Amino acid sequence: MVCLTLELKIRDMKNLKYIAVASGLALLASCQSDKTETAGADGYTINGKLNNAAVKEVYLFELGDQQFLPRDTAELKEDGTFTFTGSLSEPSLYRITLDERDGVILVLGKGDEINVEANASDLNGTSKIEGSEDSQLFQELNKLVNENQAKEMELQQRFAQASQKGDTREMTNLQAEYEKLRFSVKDFLAKHPNSIVSAFGTLTLIDPASDFAFADSMATLYKKHMPESKYTKQLVDKLKESRSTAVGSIAPEITLPTPDGGTASLSSLRGKYVLIDFWASWCGPCRKENPNVVRMYNQYKDKGFEIFGVSLDQNREKWLKAIADDKLTWPHVSDLKGWESAAAGIYNITAIPQTMLLDKEGRIIAKNLRGKALEDKLAEVLN
Protein backbone atom coordinates (compact mmCIF):
# COMPACT_ATOMS: atom_id res chain seq x y z
CA MET A 1 0.00 0.00 0.00
CA VAL A 2 1.29 3.44 -0.87
CA CYS A 3 2.05 5.37 2.32
CA LEU A 4 0.51 8.75 1.53
CA THR A 5 -0.36 10.62 4.71
CA LEU A 6 -3.56 12.63 4.74
CA GLU A 7 -2.36 14.93 7.50
CA LEU A 8 -2.70 18.64 6.89
CA LYS A 9 0.76 19.77 5.88
CA ILE A 10 2.65 22.94 5.23
CA ARG A 11 5.57 21.95 3.04
CA ASP A 12 7.52 19.46 5.17
CA MET A 13 5.71 20.16 8.46
CA LYS A 14 3.42 17.35 9.48
CA ASN A 15 0.30 18.73 11.18
CA LEU A 16 -1.20 22.12 11.73
CA LYS A 17 -1.67 21.32 15.40
CA TYR A 18 2.06 21.00 15.87
CA ILE A 19 3.56 23.65 13.60
CA ALA A 20 6.51 25.25 15.38
CA VAL A 21 6.27 28.95 16.13
CA ALA A 22 8.43 30.79 13.63
CA SER A 23 10.95 32.66 15.72
CA GLY A 24 9.91 32.23 19.32
CA LEU A 25 7.31 34.05 21.31
CA ALA A 26 9.80 36.74 22.31
CA LEU A 27 9.59 38.24 18.83
CA LEU A 28 6.07 39.37 19.58
CA ALA A 29 7.42 42.17 21.72
CA SER A 30 8.10 44.08 18.52
CA CYS A 31 4.81 43.06 16.89
CA GLN A 32 2.31 44.22 19.46
CA SER A 33 -0.76 46.10 18.34
CA ASP A 34 -1.55 49.49 19.80
CA LYS A 35 -5.15 48.27 20.20
CA THR A 36 -6.62 51.30 18.44
CA GLU A 37 -9.87 50.85 16.60
CA THR A 38 -9.38 49.60 13.05
CA ALA A 39 -11.57 51.52 10.66
CA GLY A 40 -12.95 50.40 7.34
CA ALA A 41 -13.90 47.11 5.77
CA ASP A 42 -10.36 45.70 6.07
CA GLY A 43 -10.51 45.51 9.86
CA TYR A 44 -11.11 42.43 12.00
CA THR A 45 -11.89 41.75 15.64
CA ILE A 46 -11.28 38.55 17.58
CA ASN A 47 -12.95 38.28 20.96
CA GLY A 48 -11.86 35.23 22.89
CA LYS A 49 -11.97 33.39 26.16
CA LEU A 50 -9.46 30.78 27.28
CA ASN A 51 -10.56 28.80 30.28
CA ASN A 52 -8.04 27.63 32.89
CA ALA A 53 -5.21 29.71 31.46
CA ALA A 54 -2.27 30.22 33.82
CA VAL A 55 -0.47 32.88 31.72
CA LYS A 56 -1.05 36.56 31.11
CA GLU A 57 -0.59 36.85 27.35
CA VAL A 58 -2.01 35.24 24.22
CA TYR A 59 -0.38 35.41 20.79
CA LEU A 60 -1.60 35.71 17.22
CA PHE A 61 0.42 34.26 14.33
CA GLU A 62 -0.26 34.42 10.58
CA LEU A 63 0.60 31.57 8.24
CA GLY A 64 3.36 32.65 5.86
CA ASP A 65 4.76 30.70 2.93
CA GLN A 66 6.30 27.98 5.11
CA GLN A 67 5.60 28.76 8.75
CA PHE A 68 3.56 30.81 11.16
CA LEU A 69 4.82 34.36 11.68
CA PRO A 70 4.19 36.50 14.80
CA ARG A 71 1.64 39.25 14.28
CA ASP A 72 0.20 40.39 17.60
CA THR A 73 -0.07 39.81 21.34
CA ALA A 74 -2.94 40.55 23.71
CA GLU A 75 -3.44 40.70 27.45
CA LEU A 76 -5.17 37.68 28.90
CA LYS A 77 -7.40 39.02 31.65
CA GLU A 78 -8.15 37.26 34.91
CA ASP A 79 -11.41 35.87 33.53
CA GLY A 80 -9.55 34.45 30.49
CA THR A 81 -10.87 36.98 27.97
CA PHE A 82 -8.80 38.76 25.35
CA THR A 83 -9.25 40.85 22.19
CA PHE A 84 -7.29 41.18 18.97
CA THR A 85 -8.01 43.95 16.46
CA GLY A 86 -6.21 44.69 13.24
CA SER A 87 -6.44 44.92 9.48
CA LEU A 88 -5.43 42.64 6.64
CA SER A 89 -4.97 42.80 2.91
CA GLU A 90 -6.54 39.40 2.14
CA PRO A 91 -8.09 36.43 3.97
CA SER A 92 -5.48 34.15 5.53
CA LEU A 93 -4.96 31.43 8.13
CA TYR A 94 -4.04 32.49 11.65
CA ARG A 95 -3.14 30.74 14.88
CA ILE A 96 -3.99 31.77 18.42
CA THR A 97 -1.56 30.23 20.88
CA LEU A 98 -0.17 30.41 24.39
CA ASP A 99 3.04 28.53 23.59
CA GLU A 100 4.64 26.46 20.83
CA ARG A 101 2.74 23.25 21.51
CA ASP A 102 -0.91 24.01 20.84
CA GLY A 103 -3.14 26.54 19.13
CA VAL A 104 -6.49 27.43 17.62
CA ILE A 105 -6.39 27.66 13.83
CA LEU A 106 -8.85 30.11 12.28
CA VAL A 107 -9.42 31.97 9.04
CA LEU A 108 -9.53 35.76 9.18
CA GLY A 109 -11.22 37.74 6.46
CA LYS A 110 -11.84 41.43 5.95
CA GLY A 111 -14.50 42.76 8.29
CA ASP A 112 -14.68 39.58 10.37
CA GLU A 113 -15.86 39.70 13.98
CA ILE A 114 -15.00 36.32 15.45
CA ASN A 115 -15.66 34.82 18.87
CA VAL A 116 -13.33 32.10 20.11
CA GLU A 117 -13.54 29.97 23.24
CA ALA A 118 -11.29 27.08 24.27
CA ASN A 119 -9.71 25.34 27.22
CA ALA A 120 -6.08 26.36 27.68
CA SER A 121 -5.05 22.75 28.27
CA ASP A 122 -6.15 21.72 24.76
CA LEU A 123 -6.71 24.75 22.54
CA ASN A 124 -7.05 22.88 19.27
CA GLY A 125 -9.20 20.06 20.60
CA THR A 126 -11.69 22.21 22.57
CA SER A 127 -11.94 25.33 20.42
CA LYS A 128 -15.32 26.75 19.46
CA ILE A 129 -15.38 29.46 16.81
CA GLU A 130 -18.35 31.66 15.88
CA GLY A 131 -18.64 34.33 13.22
CA SER A 132 -16.43 32.70 10.60
CA GLU A 133 -17.76 30.11 8.17
CA ASP A 134 -14.26 29.54 6.78
CA SER A 135 -12.90 28.82 10.25
CA GLN A 136 -15.64 26.27 10.83
CA LEU A 137 -14.87 24.73 7.42
CA PHE A 138 -11.23 24.45 8.41
CA GLN A 139 -12.15 22.65 11.61
CA GLU A 140 -14.33 20.23 9.63
CA LEU A 141 -11.52 19.54 7.17
CA ASN A 142 -8.96 19.08 9.93
CA LYS A 143 -11.30 16.65 11.70
CA LEU A 144 -11.83 14.69 8.49
CA VAL A 145 -8.10 14.53 7.82
CA ASN A 146 -7.27 13.36 11.35
CA GLU A 147 -10.00 10.70 11.26
CA ASN A 148 -8.74 9.50 7.88
CA GLN A 149 -5.20 9.35 9.17
CA ALA A 150 -6.24 7.05 12.01
CA LYS A 151 -8.14 4.83 9.56
CA GLU A 152 -5.19 4.84 7.17
CA MET A 153 -2.82 3.57 9.86
CA GLU A 154 -5.22 0.71 10.60
CA LEU A 155 -5.50 -0.12 6.89
CA GLN A 156 -1.72 -0.16 6.52
CA GLN A 157 -1.40 -2.65 9.38
CA ARG A 158 -4.07 -4.87 7.88
CA PHE A 159 -2.47 -4.55 4.44
CA ALA A 160 0.90 -5.64 5.83
CA GLN A 161 -0.71 -8.69 7.45
CA ALA A 162 -2.54 -9.59 4.23
CA SER A 163 0.69 -9.17 2.26
CA GLN A 164 2.54 -11.57 4.57
CA LYS A 165 -0.21 -14.13 4.07
CA GLY A 166 -0.28 -13.58 0.32
CA ASP A 167 -3.98 -12.70 0.51
CA THR A 168 -4.30 -10.71 -2.72
CA ARG A 169 -8.08 -10.40 -2.47
CA GLU A 170 -7.82 -8.76 0.96
CA MET A 171 -5.02 -6.51 -0.30
CA THR A 172 -7.22 -5.36 -3.19
CA ASN A 173 -10.14 -4.67 -0.86
CA LEU A 174 -7.94 -2.69 1.53
CA GLN A 175 -6.52 -0.64 -1.33
CA ALA A 176 -10.10 0.20 -2.38
CA GLU A 177 -10.89 1.32 1.18
CA TYR A 178 -7.79 3.48 1.15
CA GLU A 179 -8.85 5.13 -2.10
CA LYS A 180 -12.22 5.97 -0.50
CA LEU A 181 -10.37 7.90 2.20
CA ARG A 182 -8.51 9.90 -0.41
CA PHE A 183 -11.75 10.57 -2.28
CA SER A 184 -13.49 11.83 0.87
CA VAL A 185 -10.96 14.67 1.18
CA LYS A 186 -11.21 15.56 -2.51
CA ASP A 187 -15.00 15.50 -2.27
CA PHE A 188 -14.87 17.95 0.65
CA LEU A 189 -12.57 20.30 -1.25
CA ALA A 190 -14.71 20.15 -4.39
CA LYS A 191 -17.84 21.15 -2.47
CA HIS A 192 -16.29 24.44 -1.32
CA PRO A 193 -14.62 26.06 -4.36
CA ASN A 194 -15.29 29.59 -3.04
CA SER A 195 -13.38 29.09 0.23
CA ILE A 196 -9.69 29.68 0.84
CA VAL A 197 -9.88 26.60 3.06
CA SER A 198 -10.48 24.56 -0.06
CA ALA A 199 -7.63 26.29 -1.90
CA PHE A 200 -5.29 25.77 1.05
CA GLY A 201 -6.41 22.15 1.36
CA THR A 202 -5.77 21.45 -2.32
CA LEU A 203 -2.37 23.14 -2.06
CA THR A 204 -1.25 21.11 0.96
CA LEU A 205 -3.15 17.82 0.73
CA ILE A 206 -3.30 16.97 -2.96
CA ASP A 207 -0.19 15.55 -4.61
CA PRO A 208 0.00 16.78 -8.23
CA ALA A 209 2.10 13.75 -9.13
CA SER A 210 -0.85 11.41 -8.57
CA ASP A 211 -3.87 13.77 -8.72
CA PHE A 212 -2.85 16.43 -11.22
CA ALA A 213 -6.18 16.49 -13.05
CA PHE A 214 -8.12 17.11 -9.84
CA ALA A 215 -5.72 19.77 -8.55
CA ASP A 216 -5.71 21.50 -11.94
CA SER A 217 -9.51 21.53 -12.16
CA MET A 218 -9.75 23.02 -8.65
CA ALA A 219 -7.12 25.64 -9.51
CA THR A 220 -9.30 26.70 -12.44
CA LEU A 221 -12.22 27.26 -10.03
CA TYR A 222 -10.05 29.15 -7.55
CA LYS A 223 -8.75 31.42 -10.31
CA LYS A 224 -12.37 32.23 -11.14
CA HIS A 225 -13.67 32.76 -7.59
CA MET A 226 -10.60 34.14 -5.76
CA PRO A 227 -7.84 34.93 -8.25
CA GLU A 228 -5.93 37.22 -5.87
CA SER A 229 -5.69 34.71 -3.00
CA LYS A 230 -2.12 33.76 -2.17
CA TYR A 231 -3.23 30.13 -1.91
CA THR A 232 -4.61 30.24 -5.45
CA LYS A 233 -1.36 31.73 -6.73
CA GLN A 234 0.78 29.21 -4.83
CA LEU A 235 -1.29 26.32 -6.19
CA VAL A 236 -1.01 27.60 -9.77
CA ASP A 237 2.77 27.94 -9.40
CA LYS A 238 3.00 24.45 -7.90
CA LEU A 239 1.06 22.95 -10.80
CA LYS A 240 3.34 24.61 -13.33
CA GLU A 241 6.15 22.43 -12.02
CA SER A 242 4.08 19.27 -12.51
CA ARG A 243 2.28 20.06 -15.75
CA SER A 244 5.04 18.79 -18.04
CA THR A 245 5.00 15.37 -16.36
CA ALA A 246 1.26 15.04 -15.77
CA VAL A 247 -0.67 12.07 -17.12
CA GLY A 248 -1.54 12.90 -20.73
CA SER A 249 1.64 14.89 -21.38
CA ILE A 250 4.47 13.85 -23.67
CA ALA A 251 7.28 12.72 -21.39
CA PRO A 252 10.22 15.17 -21.40
CA GLU A 253 13.37 13.94 -23.07
CA ILE A 254 16.05 12.22 -21.01
CA THR A 255 19.54 11.78 -22.46
CA LEU A 256 22.13 10.49 -20.01
CA PRO A 257 25.27 8.28 -19.86
CA THR A 258 24.91 4.51 -20.06
CA PRO A 259 26.92 1.90 -18.14
CA ASP A 260 29.20 1.30 -21.14
CA GLY A 261 30.20 4.97 -21.37
CA GLY A 262 27.88 5.96 -24.19
CA THR A 263 24.60 7.86 -23.98
CA ALA A 264 20.97 6.85 -24.45
CA SER A 265 17.79 8.86 -24.98
CA LEU A 266 14.29 8.08 -23.86
CA SER A 267 12.91 9.11 -27.26
CA SER A 268 14.85 6.28 -28.94
CA LEU A 269 12.29 3.87 -27.49
CA ARG A 270 9.28 5.40 -29.27
CA GLY A 271 7.02 2.76 -30.73
CA LYS A 272 7.04 0.73 -27.52
CA TYR A 273 5.29 0.99 -24.19
CA VAL A 274 8.03 2.25 -21.87
CA LEU A 275 8.27 2.20 -18.09
CA ILE A 276 10.58 4.93 -16.82
CA ASP A 277 11.93 3.53 -13.56
CA PHE A 278 13.58 6.00 -11.17
CA TRP A 279 15.62 3.98 -8.68
CA ALA A 280 19.05 3.64 -7.00
CA SER A 281 21.25 0.86 -5.68
CA TRP A 282 20.97 2.28 -2.13
CA CYS A 283 17.13 2.41 -2.23
CA GLY A 284 15.77 -0.55 -0.25
CA PRO A 285 12.19 -0.35 -1.57
CA CYS A 286 13.55 -0.10 -5.12
CA ARG A 287 15.63 -3.25 -4.75
CA LYS A 288 12.71 -5.05 -3.11
CA GLU A 289 10.50 -4.19 -6.09
CA ASN A 290 13.08 -5.20 -8.71
CA PRO A 291 12.19 -8.93 -8.81
CA ASN A 292 8.61 -8.03 -9.68
CA VAL A 293 9.76 -5.61 -12.37
CA VAL A 294 12.10 -8.29 -13.80
CA ARG A 295 9.19 -10.73 -13.94
CA MET A 296 7.00 -8.20 -15.77
CA TYR A 297 9.82 -7.36 -18.17
CA ASN A 298 10.44 -10.99 -19.07
CA GLN A 299 6.72 -11.53 -19.58
CA TYR A 300 6.12 -8.55 -21.87
CA LYS A 301 9.43 -7.55 -23.49
CA ASP A 302 8.54 -9.46 -26.66
CA LYS A 303 5.14 -7.74 -26.83
CA GLY A 304 6.38 -4.19 -27.28
CA PHE A 305 7.35 -3.37 -23.68
CA GLU A 306 10.61 -1.74 -22.59
CA ILE A 307 12.02 -0.30 -19.38
CA PHE A 308 14.24 2.77 -19.13
CA GLY A 309 16.07 2.68 -15.81
CA VAL A 310 17.15 6.07 -14.46
CA SER A 311 19.43 5.70 -11.45
CA LEU A 312 19.96 8.35 -8.77
CA ASP A 313 23.22 6.72 -7.74
CA GLN A 314 26.48 8.58 -7.18
CA ASN A 315 28.80 5.58 -7.09
CA ARG A 316 29.34 3.95 -10.48
CA GLU A 317 30.55 0.61 -9.09
CA LYS A 318 27.54 0.22 -6.78
CA TRP A 319 25.18 1.16 -9.63
CA LEU A 320 26.66 -1.47 -11.97
CA LYS A 321 26.77 -4.11 -9.23
CA ALA A 322 23.06 -3.59 -8.44
CA ILE A 323 22.18 -3.93 -12.13
CA ALA A 324 24.08 -7.22 -12.30
CA ASP A 325 22.93 -8.59 -8.94
CA ASP A 326 19.25 -7.88 -9.63
CA LYS A 327 19.49 -9.05 -13.27
CA LEU A 328 18.15 -5.81 -14.71
CA THR A 329 18.67 -6.44 -18.41
CA TRP A 330 16.92 -3.36 -19.81
CA PRO A 331 18.52 0.00 -20.81
CA HIS A 332 20.01 2.03 -17.95
CA VAL A 333 21.22 5.62 -17.65
CA SER A 334 22.64 7.81 -14.90
CA ASP A 335 24.67 10.99 -14.58
CA LEU A 336 25.72 9.74 -11.10
CA LYS A 337 24.63 12.99 -9.44
CA GLY A 338 22.17 11.47 -6.98
CA TRP A 339 19.27 13.79 -6.17
CA GLU A 340 20.94 16.46 -8.32
CA SER A 341 20.37 14.31 -11.41
CA ALA A 342 19.18 16.30 -14.38
CA ALA A 343 16.39 13.78 -14.97
CA ALA A 344 15.22 14.00 -11.36
CA GLY A 345 14.95 17.77 -11.73
CA ILE A 346 12.99 17.60 -14.98
CA TYR A 347 10.54 15.04 -13.57
CA ASN A 348 10.28 16.61 -10.09
CA ILE A 349 11.44 13.40 -8.42
CA THR A 350 11.59 13.83 -4.64
CA ALA A 351 11.23 10.17 -3.62
CA ILE A 352 12.01 6.77 -5.12
CA PRO A 353 10.99 4.31 -6.37
CA GLN A 354 8.89 6.20 -8.89
CA THR A 355 7.68 5.00 -12.26
CA MET A 356 5.95 6.44 -15.30
CA LEU A 357 4.37 4.34 -18.03
CA LEU A 358 4.45 5.79 -21.56
CA ASP A 359 2.46 4.75 -24.59
CA LYS A 360 3.99 4.19 -28.02
CA GLU A 361 3.92 7.93 -28.76
CA GLY A 362 5.80 8.76 -25.56
CA ARG A 363 2.74 10.08 -23.73
CA ILE A 364 2.47 9.46 -19.98
CA ILE A 365 -0.50 7.17 -19.34
CA ALA A 366 0.12 6.15 -15.72
CA LYS A 367 2.38 6.98 -12.79
CA ASN A 368 3.81 5.21 -9.76
CA LEU A 369 2.75 1.70 -10.74
CA ARG A 370 4.19 -1.07 -8.61
CA GLY A 371 3.32 -4.63 -7.73
CA LYS A 372 -0.10 -5.78 -8.82
CA ALA A 373 -1.02 -2.32 -10.13
CA LEU A 374 1.84 -2.53 -12.63
CA GLU A 375 0.93 -6.08 -13.57
CA ASP A 376 -2.73 -5.16 -14.16
CA LYS A 377 -1.88 -2.10 -16.26
CA LEU A 378 0.59 -3.96 -18.45
CA ALA A 379 -1.95 -6.74 -18.99
CA GLU A 380 -4.50 -4.08 -20.00
CA VAL A 381 -2.34 -2.33 -22.62
CA LEU A 382 -0.27 -5.25 -23.93
CA ASN A 383 -2.59 -8.27 -23.98
Describe the structure.
With 383 residues, the protein is an alpha+beta fold. It is built from ten helices and 15 strands.
Summarize the structure.
This protein is of the alpha+beta class. 38% of the residues lie in helices and 22% in strands. Strand 12 (305-311), helix 8 and strand 13 (332-333) form a beta-alpha-beta unit.
Task: Provide the fold topology.
Elements: E1 43-51, E2 57-63, E3 68-75, E4 81-87, E5 92-97, E6 104-108, E7 113-119, H1 123-126, E8 128-130, H2 133-165, H3 168-190, H4 196-205, H5 208-225, H6 230-243, E9 255-257, E10 263-265, E11 273-279, H7 284-300, E12 305-311, H8 316-325, E13 332-333, H9 342-346, E14 354-358, E15 364-367, H10 371-382
Query: Shape, please?
Result: elongated
Determine Rg (CA atoms, Å).
Answer: 25 Å
- Number of strand segments: 15
| Protein structure class | alpha+beta
Could you list some keywords that capture this structure?
disordered N terminus, 383 residues, five-stranded mixed sheet, elongated
